[in-house]
């Protein structure tokens, strides 16, 4: 039932998919991590209007399934909206998926996949 | 004496710039702006001043696009003035752009260091700091090539030469590189306004010296304050202080030895203005020693940086009381920049519902 | 027989009856325990969901403040620091640690944030101007991220508890609605089968007894008839045939009476 310890003991980073301001702020807080070359991987993705959904999905996939060192994935709500089907079907406990507000898009609890689950459970 | 021949070449420009200056938002305008409920309202209020430039904005634009559009207006006006400028004024205006160029080059250096595609960076560069050969810099794939092309292709070569080698670009923090360049730039600008045959001894030299000295002091103080707790050593720090200004040389020397805010305060004691700012910002007293770090949020006291901006605006405003001077171009650019910052700030406050801090803008008219 | 299909395939013997009774008892105890576990978890779960709701709202505010402090930086620096920050990020200063918490036998992982020392990628950002705002912004964002980490812990707990509660409830329901009725049905079935056997046996005995009684009655009657005949004969030849008394012991036809 409970995930085995190996599933999360190495998870020590946060990852973020967000717009430039959110990513900048979170990086300032010190969550940014770039792994050693040669295959240096960043744990953040800046999404702007030019980024296509496939790239977001790919990053989402990379942070949720491929990398085993990420404990929490932060994603801007309006970006989560763009890959909503993926976010809604994501149910694993690790990494935890958090939808965060961005500067231009205030937080809307109605859209949050977890909060919607909460609501559904209590029949609200 | 200078009045005799100034208008021959530069009278038109002066007139245009004074006209632009009158187009700046006044306290009254700002009062209207801070009443706005939405960005659209704000856009409407800005209509008379910015007109066409905001017309293409979508409804409820983001603050960054708003800032970009307002900057566009500054750019186009600046380009117009620059196109009409001749002789020393043209050179003066080129000097004005070097500051932005330094930022752009720093950006490109960062990109090259991390092996990014620097072409993407071009659109991030500040348009005022754009120079024709900039795309050439993007061809460089490693830092040594970049260094050489900067030396060859850009007007910044003198600032690199002598103080930075290509190894430095690789090893030093980009901020140190940037500030070294800026220091060289300020010194060069300073000597230019004081030694150029057309400007020496004119009101231009007088006003610009005041502005640049202030700028130099501000940078020295800021660098000192911001270096506490970082790996920047005192000797390295000392190298970043411009070698002129009201604090130079004694104040600079004391700054270079300062260990804490109190030390900075002692260093600026000699200049009354700065001393007042320190007192106003509540810095330096031992009780609120770290006040600049923790305080400020929610407090209505102005921070030191705010006071510096305020001072800069006042000097710029004062520049317009003089006639026959190029300094008004500089002052106008600075005033307009502050105006853009103000608009962005107000827009942010509106967009993020933080109305209580909306009054934090700086208006001098 | 009702529910004949809903019972276990056992032979209706006393031994399996005993087994079934033990099983029923076990199922009931298990049901009680699981029910209690489920209730404990649900309580915890509700508490967590409530806290998630609160935390999400709090996050909304905190992130807003943080975003605002970034706006202050943009104002003070007078430019965009985004790119520079992105490029100078090297090693995470802000990291996570996971620990476990035991709630009714379920291990809920919780995240804990910690900052590594001496790791300062952005110490010099805004050196020329805006440095103080940058520092302040970093602190604000660090606090915001802490809130996010807290929320992430809650949310992970939520996801895991959700799963666990579903499993537990499924078990409770299985025991309550399948195993217990089934066992009860089986017991009922065994009991009724055993009763049936009892009744058959009883009937058989009755039958045997009836037959026996009839047989005895018949013999009695025969004996009586013979005796009467003998008496009559005795009276006739009273002294001559006195030896017939030996038959009185009934050695010839007297069978045992079985009840």
UniProtKB/TrEMBL annotation, chain A:
Cited InterPro entries: ATPase_V1-cplx_f_g_su, ATPase_V1-cplx_fsu_euk, ATPase_V1_fsu_sf
Entry superkingdom: Eukaryota
Annotated keywords: Hydrogen ion transport, Ion transport, Membrane, Transport, Vacuole
Cellular component per GO, a single term: fungal-type vacuole membrane
Compartments reported by the entry: Vacuole membrane
Transmembrane segments: none
SUPFAM superfamilies from the UniProt entry: AtpF-like
Primary residence: membrane
Membrane-protein topology: Peripheral membrane protein
GO molecular function, one term: proton-transporting ATPase activity, rotational mechanism
Role according to the record: Subunit of the V1 complex of vacuolar(H+)-ATPase (V-ATPase), a multisubunit enzyme composed of a peripheral complex (V1) that hydrolyzes ATP and a membrane integral complex (V0) that translocates protons. V-ATPase is responsible for acidifying and maintaining the pH of intracellular compartments.
Assembly: V-ATPase is a heteromultimeric enzyme made up of two complexes: the ATP-hydrolytic V1 complex and the proton translocation V0 complex.
Family: Belongs to the V-ATPase F subunit family.
Protein's recorded name: V-type proton ATPase subunit F
Species assigned in the record: Amylocarpus encephaloides
TrEMBL record, chain B:
GO CC, any one term: proton-transporting V-type ATPase, V0 domain
A molecular function (GO) term: proton-transporting ATPase activity, rotational mechanism
Keywords on record: Hydrogen ion transport, Ion transport, Transport
Domain of life, per lineage: Eukaryota
Protein family membership: Belongs to the V-ATPase V0D/AC39 subunit family.
Subunit structure: V-ATPase is a heteromultimeric enzyme made up of two complexes: the ATP-hydrolytic V1 complex and the proton translocation V0 complex. V-ATPase is a heteromultimeric enzyme composed of a peripheral catalytic V1 complex (components A to H) attached to an integral membrane V0 proton pore complex (components: a, c, c', c'', d, e, f and VOA1).
Function in brief: Subunit of the V0 complex of vacuolar(H+)-ATPase (V-ATPase), a multisubunit enzyme composed of a peripheral complex (V1) that hydrolyzes ATP and a membrane integral complex (V0) that translocates protons. V-ATPase is responsible for acidifying and maintaining the pH of intracellular compartments. This subunit is a non-integral membrane component of the membrane pore domain and is required for proper assembly of the V0 sector. Might be involved in the regulated assembly of V1 subunits onto the membrane sector or alternatively may prevent the passage of protons through V0 pores.
Protein name in UniProt: V-type proton ATPase subunit
Source organism of this protein record: Amylocarpus encephaloides
TrEMBL record, chain C:
Annotated stretches, region: Disordered: 209-259
GO cellular component annotations of the record: vacuolar proton-transporting V-type ATPase complex
Domain of life (superkingdom): Eukaryota
Pfam families recorded: ATP-synt_D
Membrane topology: Peripheral membrane protein
Keyword field: Hydrogen ion transport, Ion transport, Membrane, Transport, Vacuole
Residue spans of biased composition, Basic and acidic residues class: 212-242
Residue spans of biased composition, Acidic residues class: 250-259
Gene Ontology molecular functions: proton-transporting ATPase activity, rotational mechanism
GO biological process, one term: vacuolar acidification
NCBIfam families: V_ATPase_subD
Family of this protein: Belongs to the V-ATPase D subunit family.
The name this protein goes by in its record: V-type proton ATPase subunit D
């Amino acid at each position: 039932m409970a995930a085995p310890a190996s599933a999360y003991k190495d998870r020590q980073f946060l990852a973020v998919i967000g717009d430039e301001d959110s990513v900048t702020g979170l990086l300032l807080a010190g969550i940014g991590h770039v792994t050693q070359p040669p295959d240096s991987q960043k744990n953040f993705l800046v999404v702007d209007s030019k980024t296509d959904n496939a790239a977001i999905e790919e990053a989402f996939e990379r942070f949720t399934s491929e990398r085993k060192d990420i404990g929490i994935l932060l994603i801007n709500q309006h970006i989560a909206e763009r890959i909503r089907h993926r976010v809604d079907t994501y149910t694993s406990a690790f990494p935890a998926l958090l939808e965060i507000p961005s500067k231009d898009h205030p937080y809307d609890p109605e859209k949050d996949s977890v909060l919607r689950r909460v609501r559904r459970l209590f029949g609200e | 004496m200078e009045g005799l021949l100034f208008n021959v070449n530069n009278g038109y420009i002066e007139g245009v710039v004074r006209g632009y200056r009158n187009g700046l938002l006044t306290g009254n305008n700002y009062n209207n702006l801070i009443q706005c409920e939405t960005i659209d309202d704000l856009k409407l209020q800005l209509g008379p001043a910015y007109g066409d430039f905001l017309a293409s904005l979508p409804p409820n634009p983001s603050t960054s696009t708003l800032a970009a559009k307002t900057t566009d207006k500054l750019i186009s006006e600046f380009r117009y003035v620059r196109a009409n400028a001749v002789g020393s004024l043209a050179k003066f205006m080129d000097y004005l752009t070097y500051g932005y160029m330094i930022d752009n080059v720093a950006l490109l250096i960062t990109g090259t260091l991390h092996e990014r595609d620097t072409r993407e960076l071009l659109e991030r560069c500040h348009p005022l700091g754009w120079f024709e050969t900039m795309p050439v810099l993007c061809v460089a794939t490693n830092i040594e090539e970049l260094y050489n092309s900067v030396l060859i292709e850009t007007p910044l070569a003198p600032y690199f030469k002598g103080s930075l080698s290509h190894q430095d670009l690789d090893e030093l923090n980009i901020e140190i590189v940037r500030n070294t360049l800026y220091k060289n730039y300020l010194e060069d600008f300073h000597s230019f306004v004081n030694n150029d045959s057309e400007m020496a001894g004119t009101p231009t030299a007088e006003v610009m010296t005041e502005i640049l000295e202030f700028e130099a002091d501000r940078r020295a103080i800021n660098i000192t304050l911001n270096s506490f707790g970082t790996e920047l050593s005192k000797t390295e720090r000392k190298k970043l202080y411009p070698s002129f200004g009201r604090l130079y040389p004694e104040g600079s020397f004391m700054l270079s030895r300062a260990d804490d805010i109190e030390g900075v305060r002692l260093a600026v004691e000699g200049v009354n203005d700065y001393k007042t700012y320190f007192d106003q910002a509540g810095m330096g007293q031992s009780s609120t020693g770290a006040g600049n770090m923790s305080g400020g949020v929610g407090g209505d006291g102005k921070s030191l940086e705010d006071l510096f901006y305020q001072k800069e605006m006042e000097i710029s405003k004062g520049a317009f009381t003089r006639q026959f001077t190029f300094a008004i171009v500089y002052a106008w650019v600075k005033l307009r920049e502050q105006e853009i910052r103000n608009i962005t700030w107000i827009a942010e406050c509106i967009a993020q519902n933080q109305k209580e801090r909306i009054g934090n803008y700086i208006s001098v008219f | 027989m009702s529910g004949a299909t809903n019972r276990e395939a056992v032979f209706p013997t006393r031994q399996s009856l005993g087994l079934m009774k033990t099983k029923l008892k076990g199922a009931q105890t298990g049901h009680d325990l699981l029910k209690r576990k489920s209730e404990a978890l649900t309580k915890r779960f509700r508490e967590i969901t409530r806290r998630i709701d609160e935390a999400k709202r709090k996050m909304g505010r905190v992130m807003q403040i943080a975003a605002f402090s970034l706006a202050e930086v943009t104002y003070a620096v007078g430019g965009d620091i985004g790119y520079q920050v992105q490029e100078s990020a090297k090693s995470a200063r802000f990291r996570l640690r996971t620990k476990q918490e035991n709630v009714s036998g379920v291990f809920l992982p919780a995240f804990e944030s910690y900052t590594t020392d001496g790791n300062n990628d952005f110490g010099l950002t805004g050196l020329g101007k805006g440095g103080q705002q940058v520092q302040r912004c970093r602190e604000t964002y660090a606090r915001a991220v802490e809130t996010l980490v807290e929320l992430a812990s809650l949310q992970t707990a939520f996801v895991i508890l959700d799963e666990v509660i579903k499993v537990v409830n499924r078990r409770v329901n299985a025991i309550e609605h399948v195993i217990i009725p089934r066992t009860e049905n089986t017991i009922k079935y065994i009991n009724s089968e055993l009763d049936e056997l009892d009744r058959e046996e009883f009937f058989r005995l009755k039958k045997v007894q009836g037959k026996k009684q009839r047989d005895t009655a018949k013999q009695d009657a025969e004996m009586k008839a013979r005796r009467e005949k003998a008496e009559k004969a005795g009276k006739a030849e009273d002294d001559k045939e006195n030896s017939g008394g030996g038959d009185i012991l009934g050695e010839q036809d007297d069978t045992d009476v079985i009840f």
